[in-house]
TrEMBL record:
InterPro entries: A-sol_ELP1, Beta-prop_ELP1_1st, Beta-prop_ELP1_2nd, Elp1, HB_ELP1, TPR_ELP1, WD40/YVTN_repeat-like_dom_sf. This is Elongator complex protein 1. Residues 1063-1218 form the ELP1 three-helical bundle domain. Its main location: cytoplasm. Keywords: Cytoplasm, Nucleus, tRNA processing. Residues 687-889 form the ELP1 alpha-solenoid domain.
Length: 1265
């Protein structure tokens, strides 16, 4: 079964160091002999230890033995302790541990029952045992130098010899390009080909080593070749088939380990002048190496071990020669690789005591940075490391943004100062050389001194470095070492190794100042200089506050403002103190990418984070970099911000390359240094940091710093004004003085826009007090341009001449004429002095700002031909294009000349003004211009009413108004200019009856024509439902009475109240209304009855026609009858149709209606019935209802309205029956011909019928297919 392992990708090495989080040492376990093999249970984390006598399951966290079984009592090992366990493996699926002995037994140890079971035995003995990563296969090497492969149920698959003459299935193809002896061998010369192969080292135990690839498809075996005595590596596949054999490598040693997530096999090789860790590919060829920091014969490599995510390689070494005390030293080194450079990150020195020397080393299968060590004296030590970036705190601008990278292979610290340069690893700004490998580095958290660092080496020495070199310094180190649950702080002169050669300082040991008891194991500590707070994190995630500056240092629980105790849910590998909404909070990032603020989870996809001043910067696994301000949001707001995807103009979010991590942020700057997965560095200016810094500079009136940053980072210059318009306008002179450069001022002016960037592109942060206060009633661009122009003119018009031109041109309506005039004045009166420009330079600059054609036309609009020539000469225009035109203009009269120029420039209003001054001979041209450009109002203002041209313009304007459906205004114009006949027609057309009557009486009209006019106007007013006006008009001017109920009522009321005869209302008017109600009700009932009768008859006619059609289809001669009936039908009306074909459309419609007879049995009775049904109700009761309501006949009004509504509902319900769907289409298809048909219409209808007949046929064929 596949073990439940989680592999995570981390950027190995690079600009991060390994920091020891905790080390758990347990000495409670004791036993006879010494441990020989070690394994870790993946599910419980307990240790499985096999010794010369027994196998034990031990929990180092509790110090308890979980289970134990004797191997000697069962006879698997001899009782004298001479036996050897050659392999041990935890089998999670079987809940057992499998071990192999040198005697040949394979034993299963049941972890639940503590029973031992021998599952197999090899007579020749076993030399090693190795299980595949998925625990499905096991490989055993025997004393006869064979390989036995079995399943997890210990069923044999194959047995082959270790030493094979064949290369394997992956044998190289040779093309015969010569032998090895004739090939190039580098500096060693051809003697390298004849060099004798070196046998294995004397200390080599000559046992085979087996290692599996991470996916379990291949395994490698390193064994001593019987012929040469040297080790060779062979690679086998899962079926036990040899794949490849390594080339002969002199000095190859016994250590062997396959990189879990790669194709490289690690081993060690002893060269004549160095000792290296080498890497081989699966085809047996070497692929890279690195040199161990020891001399040639100083150490021997006992084993190599990769952690489960392939980021760290552990090298277990031991001195080859004993010292004076006849004891050897033991080391464990942790190496990482980045940018093809190997870094020694941690060096553990176990001393010369043989009882403290490790005998078993094993990486934890679940936690990639946890390693377990068991010493000869049965002491177990568990080391937990975490990745960390050692950077300077960045408290002020003197901080150089230092990042220190440990490179213990050469006892160096690589320091890069990112404020000054960005140097990718393994290069650096400078190196610090020490005498021993470095295990930890830290920077001083104190203003003005943050560039100082301290280094802890593997021999326990602390070196302090400063910018001026190394010196003996008395410093206070808050926490020196964590020992179990005790913390110690020191205060003493510390030994330093001077960078310069003049140093002879002797080391001084530190002394402990105080000791503080902590209830738990401290795994991290963080200090905030601003608040002086020191926070501790325990291994289970609990948070403590260290009161270290008190007379009696103590530790207390971490509490929030409400007094509640705050802890992390799980342990975090990186912590940082910050202030969120004024409350101090501890942030923590776990190795599973969860970011916590106390016990609140902020996000679950965080790859790195950094607190910089008031900002929290994070990178996520969704390839974004977020920069959030901590002063404004609460923890919930921060949580919501991290969960959101960000808007279009969200300044807090930036997309970055996949796998990017934060290295550092340059203090008091906008630069963020990111490192990519492949190791290269990138500098980004995060928008949130940039805008925050810009706002600070603008608040402090540091316009130059803000401008330079915005220019470099392409921030919209409008922010300088939009941030605080009032302050900017008050400090314009300061702004101009700081920028000083004409180019910078011009750049600012050319980027001005009406858009408020603080509400669109760069929204203000929440809680910002500064609000935009634009000048009311004026446009922003005009305000800024005018303010800058006036200030520059007062400071020095000659110096800022180009910027003044820019201010004119950039306005909402460009003032090109003014700019050109200033250039012309400069040409006439050249300025002198420093910084002055010539007219040619100014004109050239204008041509850069404005299109040459636009500038030429505007110069032409000044009517200054010298200026026009000056612009034309500087442009790329051909003189043949403009000289004839200019010469023609010069020959014209001044007013007509300006008219011609304005018309050319399409400035028609100005052209009309100049043309009106040219005399009467040009009036037709002016009238034509007015008509074309619709300049009627301007023309009437230019010509006085006493001139004859005014009447012509008025008539033309009136004609235009009539065309625009404004006849009443046209009538007023005509009346004013004395055209009474035309005015009367206009008023009559617009139903302006009062004006029409006045004009008619002014003309004057004869009485009969006046009455006729009144009747026409009354009819129009009635159509517009202006009944009272129509009644008044008829009564006073036409002397007639209307038949309309409403008109009668209005007229009656008008007469009644005019002559003060209210009694007529009761005697005449109301009885007449009641009589009208009865007549209207009877009419509606008759119409409803007629509709019902026609509807019933239509159904009968349609049924008869359908029955006749079906009967005719059943007749054998149906087709003949159909054709004959068509001929008869067509000939029946052919003569009558021909007689009326030439009639008018009105008469034609009348003739069509004659054919629609309601006589029963007529050929077109159904169509006549449909027509009659459509014309049933053509009356309206609206006027009668209004009159009834007026005189409080509510019941009568309600009755007639109900009757009318019932009739309408009955007719609406009958619509689908009378006019069914498709009836119109079918009628159109049947009646192809007729008196109104043409050849084209007949052909079009015929083609439409053909297409509709083809569609059903095509669909039937598709169904059959």
């Amino acid at each position: 079964m596949m073990s439940n392992k989680i592999y995570r990708k981390y950027s190995t090495g690079k600009m991060r160091n390994l920091k020891l989080l905790k080390s758990l040492q347990s000495s409670e376990l004791q036993g006879p002999g010494s441990p020989q093999c070690l394994a870790v249970r993946a599910d419980t984390g307990s240790l499985l230890i096999a010794s010369h006598y027994s196998i034990t399951e031990y929990d180092p966290r509790t110090g308890q033995v979980v289970s134990e079984a004797s191997l000697t009592a069962e006879g698997f090992l001899p009782e004298d302790g001479s036996g050897t366990v050659v392999g041990l493996q935890d089998l999670a699926e079987l809940e057992s541990a499998c071990l192999a002995t040198a005697g040949g037994d394979v034993v299963l140890f049941n972890l639940n029952t503590c029973q031992l079971e021998c599952v197999g035995s090899v007579d020749s003995g076993l030399t090693s045992m190795s299980w595949s990563p998925d625990e499905e296969l096991v490989v055993l090497t025997t004393g006869q130098e064979t390989i036995i492969m079995m399943t997890k149920d210990f069923e044999p698959i194959t047995e082959v010899g270790i030493h094979q003459d064949d290369f394997g299935e992956g044998k190289f193809i040779t093309v015969g390009w010569g032998k090895k002896e004739t090939q190039f061998h580098g500096s060693e010369g051809k003697q390298a080909a004849q060099r004798r192969i070196q046998s294995a080292a004397a200390w080599d135990d000559r046992r085979p080593r087996v290692t599996w690839r991470g996916d379990g498809q291949l395994f490698a075996v390193s064994a001593v070749c019987p012929q040469t005595g040297a080790r060779k590596v062979r690679v086998w596949n899962r079926e036990g088939v040899l794949q490849s054999t390594s080339e002969t490598i002199n000095g190859l040693e016994q250590a062997l380990c396959w990189k879990p997530s790669g194709s490289l096999i690690a081993s060690t090789q002893r060269h004549p002048n160095k000792h290296s860790v080498v890497f081989m590919e699966k085809n047996g060829l070497l692929h890279g190496d690195f040199t161990l920091p020891f001399s040639k014969d100083q150490v021997k490599v006992k084993d190599l071990l990769w952690n489960n995510d392939s980021t760290v390689l552990a090298v277990w070494l031991e001195d080859m020669t004993a010292g004076e005390d006849k004891k050897v030293n033991t080391y464990i080194q942790l190496w990482t690789m980045g940018n093809y450079h190997w870094y020694l990150k941690q060096s553990l020195d176990f001393g010369r005591d043989s009882q403290k020397a490790p005998v078993c080393v094993y990486w934890d299968p679940q936690h990639s940075l946890t390693v377990h060590v068991v010493t000869r004296s049965w002491t177990s030590i568990t080391y937990d490391w975490g990745w960390t970036t050692e950077r300077s705190p960045g408290l002020d601008a003197t901080d150089k943004a230092n990042v220190a990278v440990i490179d213990g292979g050469e006892n160096k610290i690589l320091v890069t100062t990112f404020r000054q340069c960005v140097v990718p690893p393994p290069m650096c700004a400078f190196e610090l050389q020490l005498s021993s490998p470095v295990n930890q580095v830290t920077f001083l958290c104190q203003p003005q001194r943050t560039n100082q660092l301290a280094a802890l080496t593997s021999d326990g020495q602390i070196s302090v470095y400063s910018q001026g070199g190394l010196y003996i310094v008395s410093i206070k180190i808050a926490i020196l070492r964590i020992n179990g649950n005790k913390m110690k702080s020191v205060e003493s002169p510390i030994s330093c190794h001077k960078l310069s050669r003049a140093s002879g300082l002797s080391p001084v040991l530190p002394c402990f100042r105080s000791e503080i008891e902590v209830d738990g194991v401290v795994v991290s500590m963080v200090h905030c200089f601003q608040s002086g707070t020191v926070a501790l994190q325990l291994e289970d995630g609990q948070i403590r506050k260290l009161l270290w500056d008190h007379p009696e240092p103590s530790v207390e629980d971490w509490r929030d403002s409400s007094g509640c105790c705050i802890n992390f849910p799980v342990s975090c590998v990186q912590t940082a103190l910050c202030s969120i909404s004024g409350e101090e909070c501890l942030l923590g990032l776990t190795d599973r990418s969860h970011l916590y603020a106390g016990e609140t989870e902020l996000a679950s996809n965080i790859s790195s984070f950094l607190v910089c001043n008031d900002f929290l910067l994070i990178t996520t696994h969704s390839h974004t970099c977020r920069c959030l301000q901590l002063s404004t949001p609460s923890i919930k707001g921060l949580q919501a911000a991290l969960a959101s995807d960000g808007g279009q103009n969200d300044e807090t979010l930036r997309r970055v390359e996949r796998g990017s991590r934060i290295v550092t942020v340059v203090p008091q700057d906008t630069r963020v240094i990111l490192q990519m997965p492949r190791g290269n560095l990138e500098t980004v200016h995060h928008r949130a940091l940039v805008l925050a810094q810009l706002r600070k500079w603008l608040d402090r009136l540091r316009f130059r710093d803000a401008f330079e940053c915005m220019k470099k980072l392409r921030i919209n210059m409008n922010l300088i004004y939009d941030h605080n318009p009032k302050v900017f306008l008050e400090n314009i002179e300061n702004f101009i003085t700081q920028l000083s450069s004409i180019n910078h001022i011009n750049l600012f002016l050319t980027e001005l826009k009406e858009e408020d960037t603080t509400s669109s592109m760069y929204p203000r942060p929440d809680g910002s007090l500064v609000q935009t206060q634009h000048v009311s009633g004026q446009k922003k661009v005009d305000v800024v341009c005018d303010a800058l122009r006036s200030t520059m003119e007062s400071m020095g018009p000659n110096k800022f001449f180009l910027s003044i031109l820019t201010a004119h041109v950039k306005k909402t309506v460009p003032e090109l004429e003014i700019a050109l005039q200033k250039v012309h004045e400069l040409r006439v009166n050249p300025s002198e002095g420093p910084g002055a420009v010539s007219a040619e330079e100014a004109l050239k600059y204008l041509l850069f700002l404005v299109n040459v054609n636009d500038l030429y036309e505007h110069s032409l609009g000044t009517y200054d031909f010298d200026l026009v020539l000056m612009v034309a000469e500087k442009s790329q225009k051909d003189p043949k294009e403009y000289l004839p035109f200019l010469n023609m203009l010069k020959s014209l009269e001044p007013n007509y000349q300006r008219y011609t120029i304005d018309k050319h420039l399409k400035r028609y209003r100005k052209a009309l003004q100049h043309l009106s001054k040219c005399g009467d001979e040009h009036f037709p041209e002016a009238l034509q211009l007015v008509k074309e450009q619709k300049l009627y109002s301007e023309a009437l203002r230019l010509y006085t009413a006493d001139r004859p041209h005014y009447k012509a313009l008025s008539c033309t304007y009136a004609q235009h108004l009539v065309e625009q459906q404004q006849a009443e205004q046209a009538g007023l114009l005509l009346w004013r200019c004395g055209e009474l006949t035309s005015a009367l027609q206009a008023f009559a057309g617009s139903s302006s009856w009062r004006n029409a009557i006045c004009v008619a009486q002014q003309m004057p009209l004869p009485p009969d024509q006046l009455a006729l006019l009144a009747r026409d106007l009354a009819e129009k007013l009635t159509e517009q439902r202006r009944y009272s006006e129509a009644a008044l008009l008829l009564d006073q001017y036409a002397k007639v009475r209307s038949s309309s109920v409403h008109l009668i009522c209005c007229l009656c009321l008008l007469q009644i109240y005019m002559h003060n005869r209210q009694d007529i209302t009761e005697t005449n008017l109301k009885p007449a209304l009641l009589e009208a109600v009865g007549a209207q009700t009877a009419f509606l009932e008759a119409q409803a009855a007629t509709f019902t009768r026609h509807r019933t008859r239509l159904a009968v006619v349609r049924e008869q026609k359908e029955k006749a059609r079906l009967d005719m289809l059943d007749c054998p001669d149906a087709e003949l009858y159909s054709e004959a009936s068509s001929v008869m039908t067509g000939s029946k009306y052919s003569q009558s149709n021909s007689r009326i074909s030439s009639r008018s459309s009105k008469n034609r419609r009348k003739a069509e209606r004659k054919k629609l007879s309601l006589k029963e049995g007529s050929p077109m009775e159904d169509r006549a019935l449909m027509y009659a049904l459509g014309e049933i109700i053509t009356t309206e009761v609206h006027s009668l209802l209004k009159a009834l309501v007026l005189f409080q006949f509510d019941k009568q009004a309600e009755k007639i309205q109900l009757t009318y509504e019932e009739a309408l509902q009955m007719m609406e319900a009958a619509v689908p029956e009378v006019w069914p769907e498709g009836l119109q289409n079918s009628q159109a298809q049947v009646n192809l011909t007729g008196p109104n048909s043409t050849a084209n219409s007949i052909m079009a209808s015929f083609q439409q019928q053909q297409q509709q007949q083809q569609r059903p046929a095509a669909s039937q064929q598709g169904e059959q297919c």
